[in-house]
Specification:
globular, 113 residues, Arc Repressor Mutant, subunit A
Length: 113
């Protein structure tokens, strides 16, 4: 498979087409690009985002990715990877940095729009 096939001109910055933003950096190995394509093509990316967005809509305050994962019963890394994706889709926004109640470390907060 040619690496260029995995990239789409619709992935430009500011584009709000769900699941079109690249998940792998251009400098990542081809295996990362293949994994990203499989995640999107299988529908898992969309279902992960839907689960997080749905859960976040019921929240009244901004939360860190670790707080979201802990309270929603999701993997923290999955949540942390999908939040910027949801931000590009216009479904969540970044909030202020504060101490995470789970980790005790400073972290960016997120809020559903």
């Amino acid at each position: 498979m040619q690496q260029g096939i995995l990239f789409d001109s619709a992935q430009s910055a500011g584009s709000r087409v769900p699941d079109r933003a690249p998940l792998a950096a251009t400098t990542d190995p081809i295996s990362s690009h293949l994994a990203a394509a499989e995640l999107t093509n299988s529908g898992r990316r969309a279902s992960q985002k839907a689960a997080i967005a749905s859960w976040m809509c019921g929240q009244s305050r901004a939360l860190t990715s670790m707080e979201i994962a802990h309270a929603a019963g999701l993997d923290r890394h999955l949540v942390a990877r999908r939040l910027p994706d949801l931000e590009r889709d216009g479904l969540v926004e970044r909030g202020a940095m504060r101490e995470c109640t789970v980790s005790g470390r400073p972290a960016i907060t997120w809020m559903a729009l």
